[in-house]
Write a structure and sequence with these properties.
By secondary structure, the protein is mainly beta. The chain is about 5% helix and about 50% strand. The protein has one helix and 21 strands. Strands 5, 6, 7, 8, 9, 10, 11 and 12 form an eight-stranded antiparallel β-sheet that branches.
Amino acid sequence: MVLLLEPASLAARKKPNVPFDLIATTAPFDAGATFTAPRGAVLTSIDISVPIAVELDGEIDSAIQEMIASEAGAAIGAGSILVNSNPSENIYCGPIMSRGMGKAGPCLIDTDGDGKFDRAMKGGADANQPTALGIATNGKLMGISYAKHSIALPALVRYHRVPYAQGPKGKADLVWTSNFNPKRPGPVRIAFWMSSYNDWAGTSLASAPVEVTFAGHPVAVDINGLRLTVLGVGDKGELNFRLSGTMSSVPVRFEFLDRQNAAIFYI
């Protein structure tokens, strides 16, 4: 069994366990090819999309733009794509700027769910108490929180739903760990999970780990639709594996983690 644990003494710093169902698609690779990954190495890269995306049908008042845009050139208007990481809220945000101290982006609110935005506010990177998920202009996933106060739009702005693939894409990695010990030969337990760490925003997201035991014979594992076969474990703990099936538009649940304090333990 594999557990994600955090020291009890640091419970006060634990980030809210808000899950997000995101869409994952693996980067292209040669199906059936074999690979070797040193301990701690990334196995493959994964594209991540927020499943709800909308396109603006109208323009946003210029004065409002100045209040909610994080910097010049970050304005939104007709044709802009906004995403919503929390279906229970009608809040849609543009990409978060990936440079500067004020890592923030514009967000619009449809308070009554009638298909027209009526309020606006900023959404900014939050490493302590994130309440939503944002995608930066450089593709990093991050936790965000919203400004305490929103601004009424002088005119309602219509929007319509579009395929999620039209929205901004984030990046995640397929990573792994094992209990390999050259002094203790025998079956090796291996855990795989998807991870996205944003160093400059200080937030980390991960999917639930999937575990297999390698006992000397090839063993197949399904990681949210990505099919992988463990072929062997080398003398230095490296993983020999084959990718035999791609992950294409698969819903995957991610949760916030405290990168400094979360760890994987085998029990």
